[in-house]
Design a protein that fits this description.
The structure is a homodimer of 237-residue chains. The first copy, chain A, is an alpha+beta fold and 237 residues long. The first copy, chain A, folds into two domains: 167 residues, 60s Ribosomal Protein L30, Chain: A (2-Layer Sandwich), CATH 3.30.1330.100; 58 residues, CofE-like fold. Chain A is built from five helices and twelve strands. In chain A, the strands form four sheets. The first copy, chain A, has a five-stranded mixed β-sheet. At the A-B interface, strand 1, strand 9, strand 11 and helix 5 of A face strand 1, strand 9, strand 11 and helix 5 of B. Strand 1 of chain A pairs antiparallel with strand 1 of chain B.
């Protein structure tokens, strides 16, 4: 029976621009308690540390809400909804989220973190370094914390993947009664990101988690574009 | 360091109307490989078996799409969007999902499964029986598989809870740099449902999973209403 295990990676420390995040993670995961890693482990890395390592930080006036708002609008390709201070936007990546993913928490006062330019590339770089340093083939997911319509509370989702599927297509697979199932595309990368969030928490400074036990069939070349629904297919923008 | 583990519960077998699901689960989880359960374990139970046990099945003409559609509309309190065969509705519980949650897969041909009338109550009943039978205090989540706007692929979410929070409010908690975080309400029940889905799959007939290692602070009286966003707060219906 398949068993999934997830744990937060300790000892990552503060990440600053120019640091090679893959090296930091490989060092932290080389031995207990975080490692050793195995083939088919999944590393879930929060957007915040990816953005910091890649220098995706901009100055913001912490006392002027308009300063933050201007950055949010500059990062948007479409304003989807606006109500009071809340702005739901579509980013250049095709993500629809609050504030274009621009974040003021867990960064220095006076700075805001932008989303990585290409989170698949960020994930791939971490994956490549981990393979080179530790000799294991892992999947890497860059995660972020998004809200959603209709339901309160945030969940972590994937915004970049490497070596692990974003969406697994079970269309045409027989269900337990032998009927052909009509549509079952499962967003496994989002579910893995959510599982990882449960061991990272939001305020305890654990920006990386390992998830072990994902289905071996999910490990393949992949792109977050699998999960981005084009506007033409979407009923809510 | 917190470690989360999830596994599918084997040996549940086929569930039919009138069966006491809590007893079935307690029996399956009394000993290895599924148990013994511990205090603060979370049982995630898919809606399908809850609906079957509670007799929430209606006849449908499998050769007439209008037959299914009529049931979907009867279960809806609001049609949120409609495109071709796809109907996004709001149910009496306040859930917004495809087809009012009415499901044709994994039920006998000629039948459709409706959502439980009160999934919190369904969860509570399972929790009470497990406590009485096995002497452990577990959280119970009834899960279902929902789509979402903007992102392809389905994820499992909570539609009922007992003994475990739906949403954990971290507003006001200091972030790792000591700043007060503005809004961090985490939908832990949805994340637990997603973690469980990863070990249940969609077509292999494992309708129950155990998740061990959830934060002890999340265990409390709760209701799925914590996660249902009222229409008045919602920008997308």
């Amino acid at each position: 029976m398949q068993r999934l295990t997830a744990w937060g990676v300790t000892g990552i420390g503060e990440i600053s621009p120019g640091m090679q995040l893959g090296d930091v993670i490989a060092t932290a995961c080389a031995e207990p308690p975080n490692g050793p890693l195995q083939n088919h482990d999944v590393l879930v890395v929060t957007q915040k540390v990816v953005s910091k390592a890649e220098g995706r930080l901009v100055d913001v006036d912490p006392d002027d809400p308009l300063s933050h708002k201007a950055i949010v609008e500059a990062e948007a390709v479409r304003i989807v909804r606006r109500r009071g201070d809340l702005i739901i936007t579509e980013t250049s990546h095709g993500f629809v989220c609050a504030n274009s993913g621009v974040d003021l928490s867990n960064v220095e006062r006076g700075q805001a973190a932008l989303l990585p330019l290409d989170s698949d590339r960020s994930a791939r770089r971490i994956r490549d370094i981990v393979r080179a340093r530790l000799g294991v083939d892992v999947g890497v997911i860059v995660s972020d914390t998004f809200g959603r319509p209709w339901r309160r509370g945030l969940t972590d989702v994937a915004i970049g993947v490497a070596g692990i599927a974003a969406v697994v297509d079970l269309r045409g697979t027989a269900d337990a009664l032998g009927r052909i199932m009509q549509v079952t595309e499962v967003a496994v990368a989002d579910e893995l990101a959510s599982a990882a969030e449960l061991v990272m928490g939001k305020s305890n400074g654990v920006p990386v988690a390992v998830v072990r036990g994902a289905d071996a069939e999910w490990f393949r070349d992949a792109s977050i574009n699998e999960i981005v629904r084009p506007a033409s297919e979407d009923l809510f923008r």
